[in-house]
Amino acid sequence: MSVRKSQLSKLKTECCSIVSGTSEILSEIERFYGFYDPRSSLIRLYSEDIPDVSLSEIRMALQHLKNGKAPDEDGITTDLLKAGGKPVLEVLLRLFNPVLHGGTSPEAWSRSAVVLFKKGDNALLKNYRPISLLSRVYVLFSRIITNRLACRLDDFQSPEQAGFQKGFSTIDHIHTLRQIVQKTKEYSLSLCLA
Question: Which domain of life is it from (predicted)?
Answer without folding.
Answer: Eukaryota
